[in-house]
From TrEMBL:
<keyword id="KW-0963">Cytoplasm</keyword>
<dbReference type="InterPro" id="IPR007197">
    <property type="entry name" value="rSAM"/>
</dbReference>
<protein>
    <recommendedName>
        <fullName>tRNA-2-methylthio-N(6)-dimethylallyladenosine synthase</fullName>
        <ecNumber>2.8.4.3</ecNumber>
    </recommendedName>
</protein>
<dbReference type="InterPro" id="IPR038135">
    <property type="entry name" value="Methylthiotransferase_N_sf"/>
</dbReference>
<feature type="binding site">
    <location>
        <position position="48"/>
    </location>
    <ligand>
        <name>[4Fe-4S] cluster 1</name>
    </ligand>
</feature>
<dbReference type="GO" id="GO:0051539">
    <property type="term" value="F:4 iron, 4 sulfur cluster binding"/>
</dbReference>
<dbReference type="GO" id="GO:0035597">
    <property type="term" value="F:tRNA-2-methylthio-N(6)-dimethylallyladenosine(37) synthase activity"/>
</dbReference>
<feature type="binding site">
    <location>
        <position position="82"/>
    </location>
    <ligand>
        <name>[4Fe-4S] cluster 1</name>
    </ligand>
</feature>
<dbReference type="GO" id="GO:0046872">
    <property type="term" value="F:metal ion binding"/>
</dbReference>
<feature type="domain" description="Radical SAM core">
    <location>
        <begin position="142"/>
        <end position="375"/>
    </location>
</feature>
<dbReference type="InterPro" id="IPR023404">
    <property type="entry name" value="rSAM_horseshoe"/>
</dbReference>
<keyword id="KW-0004">4Fe-4S</keyword>
<keyword id="KW-0819">tRNA processing</keyword>
<dbReference type="InterPro" id="IPR006463">
    <property type="entry name" value="MiaB_methiolase"/>
</dbReference>
<comment type="similarity">
    <text>Belongs to the methylthiotransferase family. MiaB subfamily.</text>
</comment>
<feature type="binding site">
    <location>
        <position position="163"/>
    </location>
    <ligand>
        <name>[4Fe-4S] cluster 2</name>
    </ligand>
</feature>
<feature type="binding site">
    <location>
        <position position="11"/>
    </location>
    <ligand>
        <name>[4Fe-4S] cluster 1</name>
    </ligand>
</feature>
Length: 448
């Protein structure tokens, strides 16, 4: 049996794509996934270009794989994802031992690329953007656990000045409405009870309904998924404030299966910086969205994304960011120092902020958010909630689950509990203590 080792860099979209690579290769080419690099017949690097020096990290990994290929000449090495889209043939030029280079939209063509590589003896590169074609060629979703990702759209048309996504994944294209419902229904029949809907700009979804002119918006999709038997919890990421409509706010009020948690990237609190980023809203407009959703969900935790040190960011701009964070009291968020991504407009801006200033601002920001995280966690002590059980905790004695607001919770078990029977299920937990980034809990109901 041939084995494939897939290393995933970056975001949940890439995790989803890696799962689909494994499905395609197993169903069409006979490869089964392995976590053991030494036994692999194929190694795929599914890359992400969001972080600084992403390309350098990829080529560093490829350097190590060159030694492995010298020992195993028939080893197939492939590079996929956003770095592949950016670099294309340059990857093969720098690392001629790479056999396959493919983009996020062409992962479904892996079997054909492998066959052509073996037939021609030449490295294969396909980083085209065939819109939504890949979803028409993927095998039916398969899942053993209780949670699954479902990609509902690809690409982004916002063109924020710092972001490479429109260049590496293309413009926004939504999957047909029924296709998404069929995939979710199939997962539910396999025992999946938690779904995370994915997209670079997920709430911009507009899917075709059958062959009609009608389009389903994101709120309508959430309403229909909520009616699918077996689905107990729905998440989505990543959303954009520009498409956070009143219908979507109302969905949070009326759909019990939609988690009591929202990840809504703001990026900054200064209107000057938001304009330079081409985000398309002001700080006040963002706060207005939060105010409206908290009118229907008063205690909903809000997490976000932040970039500090964007070119031109002054001390006053940073203070405005900190004020926004204090006003909204964000939950666990992703905070980054600005790094110029090749090919983006922001890469041409003068990066005039000293590194030590960026680091200090990042530390101040994360410290403030950490205070909010702990306060929110402490407020959960004494409450009960349905928790998705993901597996055993590191100590091997407790179960580990995830709350609605994406907290890890370690759960004490009665001595007679069949822990394995609970994994992949939703069960009720009483929260007993709060740590910096996790909770402790006790099992209330084994199964319901």
């Amino acid at each position: 049996m041939k084995k494939v080792f897939i290393k995933t860099f970056g975001c949940q979209m890439n995790e989803y794509d890696s799962e689909k690579m494994a499905d395609v290769l197993e169903s069409q080419s006979g490869y089964t996934p392995t976590d053991n690099l030494d036994e692999a017949d194929m190694v795929l690097l599914n890359t992400c270009s969001i972080r600084e020096k992403a390309q350098d990290k990829v080529f560093s990994d490829l350097g190590r794989l060159r030694d492995l290929k010298s020992q195993k000449p028939n080893l197939i090495i492939g590079v996929g994802g956003c770095v592949a889209s950016q670099e294309g043939k340059q990857i093969v030029n720098r690392a001629p031992y790479v056999d396959l280079v493919f983009g996020p939209q062409t992962l479904h063509r892996l079997p054909a690329l492998i066959n052509e590589r073996q037939r021609s003896g030449r490295s294969q590169v396909d980083i085209s953007f065939p819109e939504i074609e890949k979803f028409d060629h993927l095998p039916p979703a398969r899942k053993d656990g209780g949670a699954a990702f479902v990609s509902i759209m690809e690409g982004c048309s916002k063109y924020c000045t710092y972001c490479v996504v429109p260049f590496t994944r293309g413009e926004e294209v939504s999957r047909p409405f029924e296709d998404v419902l069929v995939e979710v229904s199939g997962l539910a029949q396999q025992g999946v009870c938690e779904i995370t809907l994915l997209g670079q700009n997920v709430n911009a979804y507009l899917g075709k309904v059958n062959d009609q002119a009608e389009l389903a918006d994101f709120a309508m999709l959430l309403e229909y998924i909520s009616e699918i038997p077996g689905i107990e919890r729905i998440r989505y990421t990543t959303s954009h404030p520009k498409e956070f409509t009143s219908r979507l706010i109302q969905a949070h009020a009326t759909l019990p299966k939609l988690v009591n948690h929202l990840h809504l990237p703001v990026q900054h609190g200064s209107d000057k910086i938001l304009m330079a980023m081409k985000r398309g809203y002001t700080s006040l407009e963002y706060k207005s969205i939060i105010r409206k959703i908290r009118q229907v969900k008063p205690n909903i935790p809000i997490s976000s994304d932040f970039i500090v040190g964007f070119p031109g960011e002054t001390d006053e701009d940073f203070l405005q960011l900190m004020k926004l964070v204090e006003d909204i009291k964000f939950d666990n968020s992703y905070c980054f120092i600005f790094s110029a991504r090749p090919g983006t407009p922001a890469a041409n801006l003068k990066d005039d902020i000293p590194r030590e200033v960026k680091v200090r601002r990042l530390q101040e920001l994360t410290s403030l958010i950490d205070e909010h995280i702990l306060a929110i966690s402490k407020s959960m002590i004494g409450a009960t909630e349905r928790v998705m059980i993901e597996g055993m905790a590191r100590d091997g004695q407790k179960l580990q689950g995830r709350t609605e607001n994406n907290r890890v919770v370690n759960i004490d078990l009665p001595a007679d509990t069949n822990a394995q029977r609970l994994i992949g299920k939703m069960t009720t937990v009483l929260f007993t203590d709060a740590l910096a980034h996790s909770l402790k809990g006790e099992l209330v109901l084994k199964l319901s």
